[in-house]
Design brief:
The chain has 245 residues and is an alpha+beta fold. The chain has helices at 3-29, 36-73, 75-83, 233-242, and strands at 86-97, 103-111, 127-134, 140-149, 167-173, 177-182, 188-193, 195-202, 207-215. Helix 1 (3-29) runs antiparallel to helix 2 (36-73).
C-alpha cells in the first residue's frame, strides 16, 4: 500500500472515530439512554472501520503483487537467476521411512555461489531483498519481495529497474529448527523457529560476496512460552545492516 493511501485511510478512520465520539457525547449530555440512533451510529462506525480495513488489505495485496511482478521482470534479477546454480542439501530425518524401511531425510536448497569473493566489498544502498522458491525443474524463481532499501532522502527505487540497485540479497528457506517441550504434567509440545540462508550479490562486480544463516526470533526456554517464530523483514534488515558497516 502506498504511503499516500495509508495516510488517507488513517485520516478517514480518525474522522469516523471523532464524529462518533462527538455524537455519543451529545447524546449522553442530553441524558438520553441508548436508543435506535445510538445503535445506528455504532453500526456506522463499525461499518466504516470494516471498509477501511478491507480497502487497506486489498490495496496492500495489490501493492505487494505489483512489486513482485516488477522484481520478476527485472532484467538484472533474471540474469542472476539464469546464472545461478542450486545444490540440494540433506537435513534431519523426518521420522518417515521409504519402501525399504530406510529413514527419509528432509532436504533444502542452497546457492552454489563459489568461494571466490571480492575483498573489501560491502553491501550498499539501494538494495533489494528477495525470497527464492524452487520450481519442479529445480530452478530458482522470485517468490517474494521481502524488502527494498534506499539511500536516506532519496526516492524509493523501482523494483523493475535494473540500474536502480547496488546490492541484491537472495534468501532460501532452510528446514526449521524444532524444539520439543515437556510440561510438568507430561504434555508434549513442539515449537518451530524458521531459518534461512541469505546470499548477498554485489551488482558492480557481478558476484556473490557473502552468505550466512538468518534466524527468526529465538524460541522460548519455558513451557509457558511455547510458540512458533516466523521470519520477518526485520531479520533480513538486521542481516544487511551488519554488512553495510
Amino acid at each position: 500500500m502506498s504511503n499516500t493511501l495509508q495516510i488517507i485511510l488513517i485520516f478517514a478512520l480518525a474522522v469516523i472515530l471523532v464524529a462518533a465520539e462527538v455524537i455519543f457525547a451529545r447524546l449522553r449530555k442530553q441524558g438520553r439512554p441508548r436508543n435506535g440512533l445510538e445503535a445506528l451510529v455504532f453500526l456506522a462506525v463499525l461499518g466504516g472501520m470494516a471498509v477501511i480495513v478491507a480497502v487497506s488489505t486489498s490495496q496492500s495485496a495489490v501493492w505487494r503483487n505489483g512489486n513482485l511482478d516488477k522484481a520478476r521482470q527485472n532484467p538484472l534479477v533474471q540474469q542472476v537467476l539464469d546464472d545461478m546454480t542450486l545444490r540440494v542439501v540433506e537435513g534431519d530425518y523426518t521420522g518417515q521411512t521409504d519402501a525399504e524401511g530406510n529413514g527419509i531425510r528432509s532436504v533444502y536448497y542452497e546457492i552454489a555461489a563459489g568461494s571466490e569473493k571480492p575483498e573489501g566489498v560491502r553491501a550498499q544502498m539501494p538494495c533489494m531483498i528477495l525470497e527464492l522458491g524452487v520450481d519442479e525443474n529445480e530452478r530458482p524463481f522470485v517468490a517474494g519481495v521481502t524488502r527494498v532499501g534506499r539511500v536516506k532522502d532519496e526516492k524509493w527505487p523501482d523494483e523493475g529497474d535494473p540500474d536502480a540497485f547496488k546490492t541484491l540479497c537472495f534468501w532460501l528457506r532452510r528446514n526449521p529448527n524444532r524444539v520439543d517441550y515437556w510440561t510438568e504434567g507430561g504434555v508434549h509440545e513442539r515449537s518451530m523457529q524458521e531459518q534461512a540462508t541469505a546470499y548477498v550479490y554485489d551488482v558492480a562486480s557481478g558476484r556473490f560476496f557473502w552468505d550466512n544463516w538468518v534466524f527468526s526470533d529465538s524460541l522460548g526456554e519455558k513451557t509457558t512460552n511455547v510458540r512458533d517464530t516466523k521470519l520477518k523483514a526485520k531479520h533480513f534488515e538486521e542481516f544487511m545492516e551488519n554488512l553495510m558497516k
